[in-house]
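Protocol check, entry for the methods section draft. Step 1: assemble the input record (protein sequence plus ligand SMILES). Step 2: submit for complex structure prediction. Step 3: store the structure tokens unaltered in the notebook. Ligand used here: magnesium ion. Step 1 record:
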Amino acid sequence: MEYGQELRTAAITQRVRDTLALLRTSEILGKQELRAESLLKKLEEERITVAVIGQFKRGKSALVNALLGEPLLPVGIVPVTSAVTEIRYGTPRAAVRFQNGLVRPTEIDQLAKYINEQENPDNHLGVSSVRIFSASPFLQEGLTFVDTPGVGSFHKHNSDTAYAFVRESDAVIFMLSVDTPINEIEIEFLQNTRMFAGKFFFVVNKIDTIDAEELKTYLDYCRDLLRRLMDTQDVTLFPLSAKTGAGVEQLKEKLLRECKTGLREILCESSRLKLRDIVVEALAQIELYWKVLLMPPAVLARTLKRMKETLEDFRLQAEETVRVLHADRNEVIPGLEEMLEARLNEYKMALTDAVTDIFGMDYHYAITELELLARPEDVVETPPAEELGRQYSQTTEKLRVDLQETLNRVLLYRNDSTVEVVTRIYELNRMTRQLRRTRDSLRNKEDL
Ligand SMILES: Nc1nc2c(ncn2[C@@H]2O[C@H](COP(=O)(O)OP(=O)(O)O)[C@@H](O)[C@H]2O)c(=O)[nH]1
Ligand SMILES: [Mg+2]
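Step 3, stored output:
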């Protein structure tokens, strides 16, 4: 059994490697390439991510606190969690990651500022996630816990974040609570997550608020519904109270056992689902690319002209940034280097959006993570503003030129070489065939 599992792990790892190699041969599949890279890393590190999901107010944050045995996360009677929070094993510390790549070390008791819906309404601070390290022995086995904002709250951006994150998790703790029946939003969410996670734990929270008989009725109802929804008899419920701690040990034990002995199985199944999703996404991207390739020449010329104008706007924007930041002076401005790096990430994100908007297909840049030091005085040798400004201008110019060249090349713009055109089309068809084969061969659990 264990031997078979080892073979399966090796098999899926190889499949991810092969797919990655294939994706790398194309200029239009950068986003999928990145996803495949992180999937490979996860397989190699044998790390699994357990996401706690469910509608707001079910007690997700309270449960994570109960599991870890410390009140790390804010809990409240109104929706409070507005950012995905990752909790890993390590020396206690925390960092907030922003959408522009900045990573800011933060005291754990200051986190509410960033992950509280009330203190950071509609995520106006641009937080992308929060990472907490905790020395809780529970995390020692290579588990990463993720607390998500609830789906279906009035704050729509929360649902979006939760959805996006579930794609990256391997196991899911799906949280229900006895004070409300399962509703449509939860059902929809569950059906969407089924495609990505390799393992489900169903928790029924707040059992302290009802008596044993009511609980039995509720559990029977849930089990029945979940079996139908998940299309399997294999549904185990964990009734508990995150508040009083009743039932938490049982869930903990089960999680630990699964994650020790079943880690590879969970990882394999979740990797199969994720690889399939990456391949499906790549195929969709190729579809979009075909649409652009087959544009009538006049339309293509117009579209490229629009792109050119947009790039000119981008040039002016970069100039403005340098000017506004006073990066035209020969003095050292603390923090300016990180600020410009973050600006550069924002620039890349805006370019990506522009391409998507104009051509209807993706173009992808890797966003650099910029770890800010806990003590800014530790920063050594920051170049003077003038130099940083010059670098920023050069880098953004290179981005624009590269983008223009790549677009001309992949769109075969004014390319009179029949050989090149035919080769590209041939390559594209070959890629599509291989991706389809991979997709179809990952259809079932037994395929590995
Ligand atoms: N009675 C009771 N209340 C709970 C329990 N777990 C959480 N709560 C309460 O439910 C509310 C929502 O909890 P929270 O963890 O913030 O929910 P989340 O939005 O799913 O993260 C808070 O007021 C908690 O105190 C429980 O087991 N029993
Ligand atoms: Mg919460």
